[in-house]
Write a structure and sequence with these properties.
α4 packs across α5 and α5 runs parallel beside α6. The strands form 2 sheets. A 7-stranded parallel sheet has the order 3-2-1-4-5-6-7, with helices on both faces. A 6-stranded parallel sheet has the order 10-9-8-11-12-13, sandwiched between helices. By secondary structure, the protein is an alpha/beta fold. The chain has 2 domains: 174 residues, Glycogen Phosphorylase B (Rossmann fold), CATH 3.40.50; 129 residues, Rossmann fold (3-Layer(aba) Sandwich), CATH 3.40.50. It is 35% helix and 19% strand. It has 11 helices and 13 strands. The mean pLDDT is 92.
Length: 318
């Protein structure tokens, strides 16, 4: 079977799926956004080359990269049509769309593909705290679902609310847990030593990620582990607000902005612990990346996170 994986934002999950499918003997083609490649500080050609040179994906996996105009630019329809046509030329047997919230052109793509079965994973199917489900997002999701033969959610507790919200019959929705991360560690260059007592907070700095609570907890952490150092790496509006709460600058190392793949791997290799103090959550690629690097996690007992933490073995739930 030839599987076409499409994503505009969740490239890491697409790479992991490409590896898993290739290992299972399936042929895989990736259809990615140029913007995602550029955010990783790569030219599209350089990114594609690194994927192969570092063994992130097998050489048998074809990588197609597309430049989209701005999200609301109607010219994006030309890119969607181009992707659709390329899939037919590639003789794809199954299309798997990894859809983040508010990605209208993926919804259009799902509806344009008529003679190939379409499976869509809703990465964030239920709105997080601070990210209300707007009418716009709901309409996009409805369009995605209408163009998909099957909808996947990665949390068992997401099935009922998604079915209720979008009136999806039982035979068209399924829970499939996120697979193990396999691609992230391949980006690392050279040997990176773990730094004891280094606590990593990684990813998009949105309100629901709970960065505020980690920063407020730092004095308590220091009382128990004086050498503890908190490494924050990511982007988002919350950082400016939370920075004002820091009482001891020397206890923090902060890297603001989108983190390139090699630097991301470096941060996880350095960490001795990864924390997810989330207020709400769907699932978490950060959590699975921590496991790939052999790091324990401390996560809050929210959303689908408990499905991915083996208490006392892979980490702790609080």
């Amino acid at each position: 079977m030839h599987v076409g994986l499409v994503t505009l934002t969740d490239t890491d999950t697409a790479l992991d799926l490409a590896n898993a499918l290739s290992e299972a003997g399936e042929l895989v083609s990736l259809y990615l956004s140029e913007k995602a490649c550029l955010e990783l500080n790569e030219t599209p050609a350089g990114y594609r080359s690194n994927l192969y040179d570092k063994g992130v994906i097998p050489l048998s996996c074809q990588v197609n990269i597309y430049r989209f105009p701005r999200m609301r630019d109607p010219r994006s329809i030309k890119v969607v049509i181009e992707i659709c046509q390329q899939m037919y030329r590639d003789q794809v047997d199954l299309v798997h769309i990894l859809a983040g919230p508010a990605e209208p052109w993926l919804a259009v793509l799902a509806c344009l593909i008529r003679s190939i079965p379409v499976v869509t994973t809703l990465i964030v199917p239920v709105a997080n705290v601070g990210d209300p489900l707007s009418i716009w997002v709901e309409l996009i999701n409805r369009l995605l679902i209408s163009g998909s033969n099957l909808v996947i959610v990665n949390g068992q507790n997401q099935i009922i609310p998604v079915q209720s919200q979008y009136k999806i019959p039982d035979h068209r929705i399924v829970h499939i847990p996120l697979g193990a991360r396999t691609s992230s560690a391949k980006w690392i260059s050279g040997e990176v030593q773990e730094q004891p007592q280094t606590i990593l907070f990684f990813g998009r700095l949105a309100f629901y990620k709970g960065l505020e609570f980690l920063i407020r907890a730092q004095p308590l952490i220091a009382q128990q582990v004086p050498e503890a150092r908190i490494l924050i790496a990511g982007f988002g509006d919350e950082l400016a607000r939370c920075r004002t709460m820091i009482s001891d600058e020397s206890a923090f190392e902060i890297h603001e902005g989108v983190v390139a793949s090699e630097l991301m791997a470096n941060f996880f290799a350095r960490a001795s612990l990864v924390v997810l103090p989330y207020i709400s959550a769907s699932t978490s690629g950060v959590l699975l990346t921590a496991y790939e690097f052999g790091k324990p996690v401390i996560a809050t007992n929210v959303g689908s996170l408990p499905e991915y933490v083996v208490e006392g073995f892979t980490g702790l739930l609080i």
